[in-house]
Amino acid sequence: MPKRHAGAEAAGPSQRQLRVAEEVRHALSAVFARADFRDPELVGLHVTVTEVRASPDLKHMTAFVSGLGKDLTPGQLAALKRASAFLRGQVAKAVRLRFAPDLHFQPDTALGYAMQIDRALKQPEVARDLGPAADASPSADDSP
């Protein structure tokens, strides 16, 4: 068994975690594309799975989801959590793993955060500071 270094946990996910998480993301996306749900909150819901993060033992997966064109409501997130057993079974059929992973759903707020940063950068006060310096003073090296 290979030795673990002191900072091995802080290094980030392993290549296997990334690969399995991406396969689970594709499997979840396919299930959401088919949209064969019994829950009335999920019928007609268009969900995008933006990212899936896997635990080191691959038994837990956190799926970051967002709605197409609008944010998911708390009721829709609760419906996804209720449907996690069904989704777990669908993922288990699509992805060959020793254990079917428990699925946890979190809203993806990255797009909203990026839009907030974009608005902040476009404010006149910030744009002025980010623009090129128009009145740069000549340095001592430039004198004849």
From TrEMBL:
<comment type="function">
    <text>One of several proteins that assist in the late maturation steps of the functional core of the 30S ribosomal subunit. Associates with free 30S ribosomal subunits (but not with 30S subunits that are part of 70S ribosomes or polysomes). Required for efficient processing of 16S rRNA. May interact with the 5'-terminal helix region of 16S rRNA.</text>
</comment>
<dbReference type="InterPro" id="IPR015946">
    <property type="entry name" value="KH_dom-like_a/b"/>
</dbReference>
<protein>
    <recommendedName>
        <fullName>Ribosome-binding factor A</fullName>
    </recommendedName>
</protein>
<keyword id="KW-0690">Ribosome biogenesis</keyword>
<comment type="similarity">
    <text>Belongs to the RbfA family.</text>
</comment>
<keyword id="KW-0963">Cytoplasm</keyword>
<dbReference type="InterPro" id="IPR023799">
    <property type="entry name" value="RbfA_dom_sf"/>
</dbReference>
<dbReference type="GO" id="GO:0030490">
    <property type="term" value="P:maturation of SSU-rRNA"/>
</dbReference>
<dbReference type="GO" id="GO:0043024">
    <property type="term" value="F:ribosomal small subunit binding"/>
</dbReference>
<dbReference type="InterPro" id="IPR000238">
    <property type="entry name" value="RbfA"/>
</dbReference>
<comment type="subunit">
    <text>Monomer. Binds 30S ribosomal subunits, but not 50S ribosomal subunits or 70S ribosomes.</text>
</comment>
<dbReference type="InterPro" id="IPR020053">
    <property type="entry name" value="Ribosome-bd_factorA_CS"/>
</dbReference>
<dbReference type="Pfam" id="PF02033">
    <property type="entry name" value="RBFA"/>
</dbReference>
<dbReference type="GO" id="GO:0005829">
    <property type="term" value="C:cytosol"/>
</dbReference>
